[in-house]
Amino acid sequence: MAKLSDFSRNQDRMREGETVEVGPIGSTFEITTRGFTPRYRDALHDLKIAAARRLNRGQKPGGLSYNAENLPPSEDDRAQGQAIADHCVLGVNGLQHDDGQDVTLDEFRAMLASGEQPMLIALAISAAARVGDDRAREHEEAVGN
Question: The domain containing residue 118 runs over which residues?
Answer without folding.
Answer: 30-58+69-144
